[in-house]
Amino acid sequence: MTAEVASTDPRTGQVVETVAHEFTPAEVDARCRTAAAAAAALDAAGPAGRARMLRAMADELEADADAIVALADRESALGSSRLRGELARSSFQLRLFAGVLDDGGYLGVIIDHADPDAAPVPRPDLRRMLAPLGPVAVFGASNFPLAFSVPGGDTASALAAGCPVIVKAHPAHPATAQRCAQVLRAGAAAADISADVLASARPDPIPFYGELGSLNPVVVTAAAAAERADEIAAGLLASYTNGVGQFCTKPGLVFVPAGASGRRIRDGLASGTRDYNPTAMLAERIRDSYRAGADQRAMLPGVDVLAESAAPDGTGFLAPARLLGVPAHVLRDDAVRTTLFDECFGPLMVVVAYTDDAQLAELLAQLPGSLTASVHAGAGETPAAHLDVLRQRAGRIVWNGYPTGVAVTWATQHGGPYPSTTDSRSTSVGATAIERWLRPIAYQSTPDAMLPLALQEANPWRLPRRVDGVLEMP
Amino acid sequence: MTAEVASTDPRTGQVVETVAHEFTPAEVDARCRTAAAAAAALDAAGPAGRARMLRAMADELEADADAIVALADRESALGSSRLRGELARSSFQLRLFAGVLDDGGYLGVIIDHADPDAAPVPRPDLRRMLAPLGPVAVFGASNFPLAFSVPGGDTASALAAGCPVIVKAHPAHPATAQRCAQVLRAGAAAADISADVLASARPDPIPFYGELGSLNPVVVTAAAAAERADEIAAGLLASYTNGVGQFCTKPGLVFVPAGASGRRIRDGLASGTRDYNPTAMLAERIRDSYRAGADQRAMLPGVDVLAESAAPDGTGFLAPARLLGVPAHVLRDDAVRTTLFDECFGPLMVVVAYTDDAQLAELLAQLPGSLTASVHAGAGETPAAHLDVLRQRAGRIVWNGYPTGVAVTWATQHGGPYPSTTDSRSTSVGATAIERWLRPIAYQSTPDAMLPLALQEANPWRLPRRVDGVLEMP
Fold first, then answer.
1. Checking CA distances to A210, which of A204, B120, B323, B398 falls within 20 to 30 Å?
2. Cβ B275 vs Cβ B309: under 8 Å
3. Do A400 and B450 touch (CB under 8 A)?
4. Model pTM?
């Protein structure tokens, strides 16, 4: 017998129901084979058919929104307002990738006509496009039961690319995952595509690499602190406690000037932190890991606990927020700096007080790779040197803003340098997320009728293409 | 004391001179730090300055062509005609990437303007572009002393991207590597860019993954064999013995029909193979490894040696060509199939005789990933099913042609599915080779003056960009 999968309510810590059972390796293997066999159906549908499928999935998701949100709230304690937003984002993402398919630019079509007079040697007809990589395994995230789980951006971009998807549901929300899978499969069927393009599984069939932790540093210049101390304190407080600090873009470290205006930011943050209401984290293991990380950091030499919210009673997986403070010079100690420059997942932020720009620059140069880096500057101020260092260490630069709240657009970049992601060349959010699932293929001297439609001379799909070295619009 | 590096003549097997010495880890480290520090100079030069540098490097390479070709021939035995072609290809590649920089499309600029009315949530101004990854280590190839070594496509594309390059010279041609490094560094200096953007080193400082071996299967349909047996035999002979079989695109396996016209192809190949003149391979280790692989395959049960060229005398690193034959049904044996479906680097080809399309399809479905797959079809024939299988297993489909001779163009794709390359999403040949060295970075709500030029609203570099979801030409 394999283990049953329990659906637990984080607000009470109690098991509400059991949802099916963990799959055996043989069951996972069978699901993967079924999904792989469905690749032909995705290919045959073409970009237009897959766009129809994604839109049908978005429709089904919205039609079942009430039930999905209720289930996800019971399993995650994230609240129905946040989860309604996540569902809206998920259906938006499905439709965004339908738009990416309508556009066709993602195929990266490049055509070089044969040229017998080419230097240094004659060249054959060569046509290049991106082709789907094959079945994609998506591992659901604990902290996004919808937008980075079964109906999330990974699933949407992989299906758009033409890759069947096998989702490994996160154990913190198995019932939500199961219901979402049923809904998406209904969407595929509604678009006359095999529901097997989406399979769900429960154990880990292969090693998994991905996002490893992100500090998301924030720099507040002296001018910005002097101009907007209260506004910045309020913004940082909201960003670091948002969703109980359970975002990969949570600001974990903020540099503020050591003087009076920096102190005003620290005081504002401390006061807000003390007033914070303990809220349930996603799962017991995550809460325990947060507690251990927060305690380890508080006990470092030279680190002060600036504020802590009221201790929660023993119910469920509640966690208090904690604000730490440290003078910049203490970070010269390698052990202290290494620990404070490492992500602590949950509602914790470290405030570093720097005395001058040279000291700040020295610390910025030692920051690890992050998903984001934010700069708050004074009116008209142009801290180009700080920006130059930060762009080496982040995938997204945020100006006078806060890193949480990732827009889902064409220009979004979510991946950053190691250790924030294992491949800084990829993004899991935004239209270019589709590029992770594609590989180039070139056809040499092949008759037009034998070419994929995307590469045929007449451009039946009206794609933007590079022809003989020149980018052409349809 | 560290080991000296010997420059050996493969035609005689004798050491001609010693070239400097193997670098110690500390020396490699110092070179890497110097190269990393030169990144700022490449960035400051911008695409226009880097294009000037690449063109100056091409000029210097051509000005020193006679001396470089003489050295490379002495160290590789590839012949001055082939090496002159390789030098022309190398300078062409440097200029191709200058053109890629002129074009600017490689930056992949995407701009989404702020939209307070966006659904499901308001969106900030977001601008995305590709940024250089940082210093790139290039490992010179044994079989391309110029085009995949110091002045090769990896160096050209990495420098174009803005990444300093550290080349680990191949021990088979250290003197060529040293001279080419001097020439390219002179090119950088001529364009007023630090010569430190190109460093050379000798030992292996880090593990290296890359191209692991490619079978490059060729399918000859019954109709093609009936129409063009002699032409196909001559083409395959030239392709598999080209450069002593020392190309990653060498056709290692060809499927021919079992009847009379297939036999005519086999006989033509056998006759040509017997007439082949033994030629020196690049290095002793490569020759020994070829001999062992060829003998292992010849001794497999059911495999016939169809022809072998005259045995070489004991001079230098000469190797005979060998043609093997096997009926398709023998490949049902897992051990035989696994060995014959594995690359044997050198002048060896396996001819598989198939009795019908079903038997051929069964074998095609078992092929490993390759850089290329070629199909020879009869006039008007459309073997779509074969093409559908082969495109899953190759990075480049060649129609009625031979896989050796890779055109350097925009549409070229050289990487293929595993095991032919470790990352099928990349290419080491052609304009898109630059994409390996870039990662995306996004700027959110950042004032125009603080943005990189590539992302500024006025588009000062006149780049093709995607703005608010729509691809725009400058």
1. B120
2. yes
3. no
4. 0.86
